[in-house]
């Protein structure tokens, strides 16, 4: 920088008059004092010092300032900030193409503005810097360097998942020197930070105008989009797979569309769906196949005549269909009717492998007869860990039944291995002996100690579904909600029920007694809760076997089949050789914590005591997060970690254990909406407000030439000034004090004091 210096005063007529009077008065008094002294030279010097002091005070009274003025040697800068957020992927910009009108994304439409050649008309007078808003806070490579359309301008898919307009504007003003103005190219959509108009107000005080260029349409273009198809990662052969899909329409009318689902094995399903105008429609396919293997499912929607975007009406994803084989352990004392029919129902389920342990107190050996029976309770952790669900009947803590060590193992199986436990008390009340053991904590209800044998009645009681029960998968015995409630009301009743007082805190009551109640309300009979990684169910009657009356296995088999699969679902999310992965909640939500749990076996088949287990999560936009799992229960080989997804949709998950070399790949779907959404209308009103407040101007993309003219007409920035206020500088006051001291000493020296 070059410049010059000069002295200036902030004087007023009053201060000048007062200064002149003071100096002249002092001169008169000093001359009179010199005459009275007989015109001594020493007195003359003293009086001259007096006049100097008064003149110096009079000078400071007029506020002198030393000003250094610097003229910049470099060109001023214009910063071009462009929006690189996900919303810029919205296709709503009509352009002229080879075949007429074409619809492109907002990011594609602004690419011409991100070329250095677009701003070359300003090169002689101004320095132009191009920068995405996500990188506005990063230091420039070199002062005054132009960022062209190369590697620093990534307008591809790696866009920001949020939009903050205020901070990039202020950070640009702080980082870029000699900033004359900012050009903001955006769709105006912001969802993070404070309102951008606050930045415009602050830049106005710095005389930095903001010129805005709006990208995108403020209104949605006519379009019908197959927004999402949630195809699960895997399904079971012979079991229905539910495939929900969402249709988003911006057409001003309702219409009926035939949605088609095609599977790579040749299966084809169609469904007529009434699509809501200007809204979203949710529907689902139910597909069942006996084939196993890897398949691809494609869902398509016919194109409407008014649509402007025709290539967003189809989605496809892979699915794996495999044979289902769940392992269930049923532990009982006597073969009561409830046990017999439960065993038959599970044995006849092709997806369930059942093992029964019948203690039969009073006999020298445990009961049994068929190949389903086992003779001993699994004592080794690795043996018990193979079971997905355990049914605990009318058994307790006794010499010839369960032991405290076995209760501890069952608790660990549920808490650490995500298995399920079903309490099924009976007439003998043996489950009361489990109080004080590790299993007491798992029971979701409080029992009446004074009535261990429960309650019986000649009049049959019935279940009554609660609000929770009406929406639960466990209690769904019919397709529609009203029909399901009617089925439960018509089920054959029970004549015995457990002595339940109330449900524990955190438990969910699915069904209650239709008549009996106490001070806590209706008696809960069907209660669930989550314990650790697993689930617990309490069945408060032993009359479910009566549901076969007149309908055979229609409701009885369906109910217990749903119980087993509901409890084993999370545990069997992903299985591989030597490793199992599960997570909760089983329907992850965006921006809510997700807990990963991995069960890892060493090369010898034993639970891994210590190890390094890593989970890599890759979102649909390419964002990669790594979660390190730490050992929780050493004896079970369980490793846990937490992750908070920031984006909805499909996530690829890879789990690897460095000690065993085992790798497991799977997919999870995160529900919810992203903060930064594609498809929302642009907000040019936000850009207009920013431009107005900062004294800039808002234009359309076709009006960029106008912005260049306005930038060319901007006046050169004022020179930099450095002011030194002499009238208030400490050295000036120190000089006055020194002169006054000298004056006083000299008066004594000449004998005037």
Give an account of the 3D structure.
The protein has 753 residues and is an alpha+beta fold. It has five domains: 2-72 and 722-749, no CATH class; 77-86 and 112-184 and 196-205 and 681-712; 224-322, Immunoglobulin-like, CATH 2.60.40; 326-568, Class I glutamine amidotransferase (GATase) domain (Rossmann fold); 574-670, Sandwich (Immunoglobulin-like), CATH 2.60.40.1930. The protein has 14 helices and 38 strands. The strands form nine sheets. The chain has an eight-stranded mixed β-sheet. An eight-stranded antiparallel β-sheet has the order 29-30-31-34-33-32-35-36, with no helix packed on it. A hairpin with a 2-residue loop joins strand 26 (508-518) and strand 27. Helix 2 runs antiparallel to helix 14 (730-749), helix 4 (166-175) runs parallel beside helix 5 and helix 5 (196-205) runs parallel beside helix 12 (684-693). The protein is elongated and about 145 Å long.
Keywords:
14 helices, eight-stranded mixed β-sheet, Immunoglobulin-like, alpha+beta, 753 residues, eight-stranded antiparallel β-sheet
């Amino acid at each position: 920088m070059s410049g010059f210096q000069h002295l200036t005063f902030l004087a007023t007529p009053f201060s000048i008059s007062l200064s002149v009077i003071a100096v002249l008065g002092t001169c008169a008094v000093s001359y009179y004092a010199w005459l009275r002294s007989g015109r001594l030279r020493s007195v003359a010097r003293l009086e001259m010092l007096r006049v100097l002091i008064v003149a110096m005070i009079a000078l400071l009274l007029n506020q002198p300032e030393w000003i250094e003025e610097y003229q910049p040697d470099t060109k001023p800068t214009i910063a071009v900030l462009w929006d690189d957020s996900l919303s810029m992927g919205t296709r709503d910009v009509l352009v002229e193409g080879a075949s007429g009108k074409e619809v492109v994304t907002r990011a594609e439409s602004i690419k011409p503005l991100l070329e250095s050649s677009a701003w070359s008309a300003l090169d002689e007078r101004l320095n132009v810097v191009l920068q995405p808003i996500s990188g506005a806070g990063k230091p420039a490579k070199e002062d005054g360097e132009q960022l062209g359309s190369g590697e620093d301008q990534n307008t591809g898919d790696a866009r920001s998942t949020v939009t903050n307009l205020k901070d990039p504007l202020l950070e640009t003003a702080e980082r870029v020197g000699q900033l004359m103005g900012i050009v903001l190219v955006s769709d105006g959509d912001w969802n993070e930070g404070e309102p951008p108009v606050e930045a415009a107000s602050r830049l106005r005080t710095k005389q930095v105008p903001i010129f805005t260029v709006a990208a995108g349409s403020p209104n949605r273009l006519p379009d019908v989009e197959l927004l999402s198809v949630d195809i699960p990662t895997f399904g079971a052969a012979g079991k229905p797979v539910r495939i929900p899909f969402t249709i988003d329409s911006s057409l001003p009318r309702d219409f009926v569309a035939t949605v088609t689902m095609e599977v790579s094995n040749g299966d084809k399903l169609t469904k007529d769906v009434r699509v809501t105008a200007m809204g979203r429609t949710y529907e689902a396919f139910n597909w069942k196949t006996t084939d196993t293997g890897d398949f691809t499912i494609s869902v398509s929607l016919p194109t409407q005549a008014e649509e402007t975007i025709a290539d967003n009406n189809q989605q496809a994803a892979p699915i794996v269909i495999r044979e289902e084989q769940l392992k269930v352990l049923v532990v009982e004392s006597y073969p009561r009717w409830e046990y017999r029919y439960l065993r038959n129902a599970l044995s006849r389920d092709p997806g369930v492998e059942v093992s029964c342990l019948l203690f039969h107190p009073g006999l020298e050996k445990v009961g049994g007869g068929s190949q389903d029976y086992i003779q001993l309770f699994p004592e080794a952790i690795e043996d018990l860990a193979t079971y997905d669900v355990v049914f605990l009947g009318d058994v307790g803590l006794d010499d010839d039944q369960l032991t405290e060590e076995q209760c501890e193992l069952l608790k660990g199986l549920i808490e650490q291995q995500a298995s399920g436990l079903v309490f099924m008390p009976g007439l003998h009340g043996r489950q009361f002996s489990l109080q004080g053991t590790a299993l007491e904590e798992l029971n979701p209800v409080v029992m009446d100690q004074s009535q261990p044998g429960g309650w019986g009645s000649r009049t049959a009681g019935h279940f009554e579904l609660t609000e929770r029960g009406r929406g639960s998968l466990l209690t769904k015995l019919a397709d529609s909600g009203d029909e399901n409630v009617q089925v439960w009301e018509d089920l054959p009743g029970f004549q015995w029920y457990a002595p339940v007082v109330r449900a524990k805190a955190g438990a969910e009551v699915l069904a209650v007694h239709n008549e009996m109640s106490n001070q806590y309300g209706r008696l809960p009979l069907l209660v669930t809760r989550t314990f650790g990684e697993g689930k617990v169910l309490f069945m408060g009657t032993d009359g479910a076997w009566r549901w076969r009356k007149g309908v055979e296995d229609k409701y009885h088999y369906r109910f217990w089949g749903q119980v087993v699969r509901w409890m084993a679902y999370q545990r069997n999310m992903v299985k591989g050789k030597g490793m199992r992965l599960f997570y909760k909640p089983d329907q992850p939500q965006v921006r809510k914590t997700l807990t990963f749990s991995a069960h890892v076996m060493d090369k010898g088949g034993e639970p891994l005591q210590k190890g390094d287990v890593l989970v890599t999560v890759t979102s649909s936009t390419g964002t990669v997060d790594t979660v390190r799992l730490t050992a929780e229960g050493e004896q079970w080989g369980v490793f846990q970690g937490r992750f908070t997804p920031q984006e909805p949709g499909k996530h690829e998950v890879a789990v690897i254990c460095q000690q065993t070399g085992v790798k497991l790949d799977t997919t999870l779907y995160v529900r919810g909406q992203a903060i930064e959404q594609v498809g929302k209308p642009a907000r040019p009103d936000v850009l207009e407000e920013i431009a107005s407040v900062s004294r800039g101007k808002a234009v359309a993309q076709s009006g960029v030439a106008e912005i260049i003219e306005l930038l060319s007409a901007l006046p050169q920035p004022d020179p930099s000034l450095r002011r030194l206020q002499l009238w208030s500088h400490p050295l000036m006051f120190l000089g006055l004090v020194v002169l006054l001291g000298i004056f006083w000493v000299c008066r004594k020296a000449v004998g005037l004091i």
